[in-house]
Design brief:
It comes from Gossypium mustelinum (Cotton). Belongs to the multicopper oxidase family. GO terms for molecular function: copper ion binding; hydroquinone:oxygen oxidoreductase activity. Lignin degradation and detoxification of lignin-derived products. With 563 residues, the chain is mainly beta. It has three domains: 119 residues, Sandwich (Immunoglobulin-like); 177 residues, Immunoglobulin-like; 200 residues, Immunoglobulin-like (Sandwich). Helices cover 9% and strands 37% of the residues. It is built from five helices and 32 strands. The protein has a six-stranded mixed beta sheet with strand order 10-9-12-17-14-15, with no helix packed on it. The protein is globular and about 65 Å long.
C-alpha cells in the first residue's frame, strides 16, 4: 500500500508539472585558473573561470542539459547533488560508480531530470577532491502554477560555504593519500569565494549582501566544505528555516543554523533592525577528537545606503565543540504537510522488508606503495568493508553483466558487535577492502540504521545517498537497540533528506521505498573519509515494466580506459 500511495502522489505532482516543464542548456568549460587569497596565489580547477561556479536556475520539473568541456589536465566527473534522476543513473556523475571520467580535451553532456525537488540543491565534481573548487548552486523555483508555502520573499541570495586551501590541492591530496598520511586541514573557510576580514591579508575580499530595510530575503545556503560541518549566523537577526535538501520543512526560528557538508538549507531573514552593517559569520562544528581548524569567516549583511564599520568582537556563534547547540538545532527539523511537498509516505513497520545495520569507522590498513612514510595508512569503512573503486564504472558492469568488477554481497550486519560508542580497549576490528554492493528489489521498503563508532577519532559523519530522498525517522546517542529504539521513531512527520549527519556517539535510522532503479552511491561527505573508503553502492534492481526499469545506456558515455 505504501508504494501505491507514493505513486499516486507523484503522479498527481507530475501531472501539475508537465503543463509547464521547460528545457535548459548550459555550457561548462572547466580549466585551471589562478586565484590570489591570503596573500598567496593558488591554481584551481574551476568552471567558466569562476569560484564558485555558475548557478543553474530552473523551475520544478524542468530538464537541464549541461555540456561539460574538460580543458584541464586530468579527468573528472560532475554530480548533481540531491537530484533523484528517475531511472536515469547514467547522468548521476560519481566517478567509477555511474561513469568513467571525462578525459582532457573531450566533452560530455549530462541530462538532468528534475522531478519533485524544490528549493536549493547544488552540483559538484565527483572525482578525488576536485569538488573543492568545481561546484555551484542549483536553484529550483516553484513551477508556473505553484507558489511558495510562505509569503513570497522580496529577494534572495545564494550563500556557499567552502574550504580554502593554499596551493595546488590535487597535488597536495595525491601526495597525502599515496604516503598514507592524513590530508591537510584547510587554510581558511570562504563564503561565496571570499575569505572575509579575519585572516590578516589586506587584499582579501569580503562577501557583501545588500538589503533594504523591512524587506525579507530567502537565503539559499549550501555547505560545500570538504570536511567540516558549519555553524552560520547573521548577527542580531533571526533566521527562519523553511527547507532542507530541496524539501520544505516546518518553519522554525533560530539565531544560527548548523549545516553538514552536502546539505542545502533555505532560510528566511528580515532586514528589520536598525540600518547598518551586520556580520554574517561561519565556523566549523565538530564532535571529533581530531577537530578541524577553528576559523571564523565573515561576510557583511549591509543595509542600503549605510556607510560605517562593523566590529569583529560582536560575532557570537556556538563554540566548535558545542554538541548541545548541534543537537538542539537538528532536533527541531520536521517535515511539513504542505501541497508543495510530495505526500508524506513513510514506510510503516509492517512494510519494511529490507533492514541494513551499518557501522561507520576509521581504521588502519598497511601502506604498501613506494611513497609510504608510515607502515599503516588511514582507511575508513562501512561494516568493516573499505570501498575500492573499480577500473570501470559499477553501473556499466551491472547493466552489461560484466563479471569481476563488483560483488553483490555487502554485509547487512557488522561482522562483530561491541560497545561501538564506548570503551574500545582490547577491540580489534579487522578491515577488508573490496567493491561490495547492497542489492535490493524494486519496491522494497528499506530501513538503514547508521551507527557511529569510536574507531579512529570518532566524530560525526554526513552520509549522502544518491538517487533518493529518504525519511530520517530516528536518532539517538549510544548504541542502537533494535528492541527498544524503534519505538521512539518519528513516523508522522520525519524530514525528507538526501544527506544525514550521524552523531559521533550515536546512530540514525532512515527509511525509503526503493522506487528508483539503478546504481546509486552512498558515502560519507567528509572527503577524507570517502578517500579512505567510507562508501558503498546501492543497487536497486529493475521492476517488471519499462517504467520501473533503468533507461537504456546512452551511446555518448565517456569511455573507460580498459574498455
Amino acid at each position: 500500500m505504501g508504494l501505491v500511495r507514493w505513486f499516486v502522489g507523484v503522479l498527481f505532482l507530475s501531472t501539475l508539472l508537465l503543463c509547464s516543464a521547460d528545457v535548459h542548456h548550459y555550457e561548462f568549460f572547466v580549466r585551471e585558473s589562478k586565484f590570489k587569497k591570503m596573500c598567496n596565489t593558488s591554481t584551481l580547477l574551476v568552471v567558466n573561470n569562476s569560484y564558485p561556479g555558475p548557478e543553474i536556475r530552473v523551475h520544478r520539473g524542468d530538464t537541464v542539459f549541461v555540456n561539460v568541456h574538460n580543458r584541464g589536465k586530468y579527468g573528472f566527473t560532475i554530480h548533481w547533488h540531491g537530484v533523484k534522476q528517475p531511472r536515469n543513473p547514467w547522468f548521476d556523475g560519481p566517478e567509477f560508480i555511474t561513469q568513467c571520467p571525462i578525459r582532457p580535451r573531450t566533452n560530455f553532456t549530462y541530462k538532468i531530470i528534475l522531478s519533485e525537488e524544490i528549493g536549493t540543491l547544488w552540483w559538484h565534481a565527483h572525482s578525488d577532491w576536485t569538488r573543492s573548487s568545481v561546484h555551484g548552486a542549483i536553484v529550483i523555483l516553484p513551477a508556473e502554477n505553484e507558489t511558495y508555502p510562505f509569503p513570497t520573499p522580496d529577494g534572495e541570495q545564494t550563500i556557499i560555504l567552502e574550504s580554502w586551501y593554499n596551493g595546488n590541492l590535487k597535488k597536495i591530496i595525491d601526495k597525502a593519500l599515496a604516503s598514507g598520511t592524513p590530508p591537510p586541514q584547510p587554510d581558511a573557510y570562504a563564503i561565496n569565494g571570499h575569505l572575509g576580514d579575519t585572516y590578516g591579508c589586506p587584499t582579501d575580499t569580503i562577501f557583501r549582501m545588500e538589503v533594504d530595510y523591512k524587506k525579507t530575503y530567502l537565503l539559499r545556503i549550501i555547505n560545500a566544505a570538504m570536511n567540516e560541518q558549519q555553524f552560520f549566523t547573521i548577527m542580531n537577526h533571526t533566521l527562519t528555516v523553511v527547507a532542507l535538501d530541496a524539501s520544505y520543512v516546518r518553519r522554525f526560528k533560530s539565531d544560527y543554523i548548523l549545516i553538514s557538508p552536502g546539505q542545502t538549507m533555505d532560510v528566511l531573514v528580515s532586514a528589520n533592525r536598525n540600518a547598518g552593517q551586520y556580520y554574517m559569520a561561519t565556523r566549523p562544528s565538530s564532535d571529533s577528537a581530531v577537530a578541524p581548524v577553528d576559523f571564523i569567516t565573515t561576510g557583511i549583511f549591509q543595509y542600503t545606503n549605510f556607510v560605517g564599520g562593523s566590529n569583529a568582537s560582536l560575532i557570537t556563534l556556538p563554540a566548535m565543540n558545542n554538541t548541545d547547540a548541534m543537537l538542539n538545532f537538528i532536533s527541531r527539523i520536521r517535515n511539513t504537510n504542505v501541497t508543495q511537498n510530495p505526500p508524506i509516505n513513510v514506510p510503516a513497520d509492517t512494510d519494511i522488508n529490507r533492514r541494513v545495520f551499518i557501522t561507520l569507522a576509521v581504521n588502519d590498513l598497511p601502506c604498501k606503495n613506494s611513497k609510504c612514510v608510515v607502515s599503516d595508512g588511514f582507511a575508513a569503512s562501512l561494516n568493516n568493508v573499505s570501498f575500492v573503486y573499480p577500473h570501470i564504472d559499477v553501473l556499466q558492469a551491472y547493466y552489461r553483466n560484466i563479471r569481476g568488477v563488483f560483488a553483490e554481497n555487502f554485509p547487512f550486519l557488522p561482522p562483530e558487535f561491541y560497545d561501538f560508542t564506548g570503551n574500545l580497549t582490547g577491540v580489534v576490528s579487522a578491515v577488508e577492502v573490496g567493491t561490495r554492493a547492497i542489492c535490493v528489489n524494486y519496491g522494497d521498503a528499506v530501513e538503514i540504521v547508521l551507527q557511529s563508532t569510536q574507531m579512529g577519532a570518532g566524530g560525526s559523519h554526513p552520509i549522502h545517498l544518491h538517487g533518493y530522498s529518504f525519511y530520517w525517522v530516528g536518532a539517538g546517542l549510544g548504541n542502537f537497540n533494535g528492541e527498544t529504539d524503534p519505538s521512539t521513531y518519528n513516523l508522522v512527520d520525519p524530514p525528507l533528506m538526501n544527506t544525514i549527519d550521524v552523531p559521533g556517539t550515536g546512530w540514525v535510522a532512515i527509511r525509503f521505498f526503493a522506487n528508483n532503479p539503478g546504481v546509486w552511491y552512498m558515502h560519507c561527505h567528509f572527503e577524507r573519509h570517502t578517500s579512505w573508503g567510507m562508501s558503498t553502492v546501492l543497487i536497486v534492481r529493475n521492476g517488471s515494466t519499462i517504467e520501473t526499469s533503468i533507461r537504456p545506456r546512452p551511446s555518448t558515455m565517456p569511455r573507460c580506459h580498459r574498455t
